[in-house]
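In the design runs reported in the main text, the only information available to the sequence generator was the tokenized backbone. The following block is the verbatim input for one such run; it is reproduced so that readers can re-run the procedure and compare outputs position by position.
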């Protein structure tokens, strides 16, 4: 597997999955608000982004996998307050993510360290690690791996990507699991983290460039 080429293509597809204008800004702000461990209102997002509330709601509704509570607040988009197999502990708060890759990708976006626990999708063996914005530490088992897939061109990123992306106790276990699933690659946790860092950096650059452009225009 040519990891550099695969990384470039995966990053491109992930970052283009939602081409809504300003989505990078919305996504990063939403993750940072959700990391506080409470539902996020569209009004709070609008205030943080300096957007009209209607624009925020429209954008969230276009992101088809957005999770809402009964009061019209967001409780999940990638990072979620609802339990999944992937626990993402930040500042003592127990949050969750939609997939294994999110746990490697989000610390750089929220600029916080996360303690991650999940289970091997094939054997049920506990997988744990610490993910900082710039590195991963304390991987157990040390040979743990992650499945990745190139998502199709669809706004439903949870269905197209997250449902196929899991932790495994070892690369061999993951490869055996993936043998009957065309298009799935199994890589080390460290390689998956490198892909996540590239995704995060690209999103953050997009946010900075857009904000810089707005400032220059003003």
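Verbatim output:
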């Amino acid at each position: 597997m040519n990891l550099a080429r695969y990384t470039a293509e995966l990053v491109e597809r992930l970052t283009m999955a939602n081409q809504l204008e300003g989505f990078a800004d919305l996504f990063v702000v939403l993750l940072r608000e959700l990391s506080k461990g409470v539902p996020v209102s569209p009004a709070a997002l609008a205030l943080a982004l300096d957007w009209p509330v209607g624009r925020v709601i429209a954008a969230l509704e276009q992101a088809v996998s957005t999770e809402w509570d009964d009061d019209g607040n967001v409780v999940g988009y990638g990072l979620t307050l609802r339990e999944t197999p992937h626990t993402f502990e930040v500042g003592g708060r127990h949050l969750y993510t939609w997939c294994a890759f999110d746990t490697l990708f989000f610390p750089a976006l929220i600029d916080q360290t996360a303690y991650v626990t999940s289970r091997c999708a094939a054997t049920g063996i506990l997988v744990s690690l610490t993910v900082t914005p710039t590195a991963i530490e304390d991987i157990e088992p040390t040979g743990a791996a992650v499945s990745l897939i190139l998502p199709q061109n669809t706004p439903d990123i949870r269905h197209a990507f997250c449902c196929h992306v899991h932790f495994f106790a070892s690369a061999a276990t993951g490869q055996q699991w993936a043998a009957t699933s065309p298009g799935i690659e199994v890589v080390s946790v460290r390689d998956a983290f490198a892909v996540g860092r590239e995704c995060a950096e690209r999103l953050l650059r997009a946010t900075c460039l857009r904000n810089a452009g707005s400032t220059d225009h003003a």
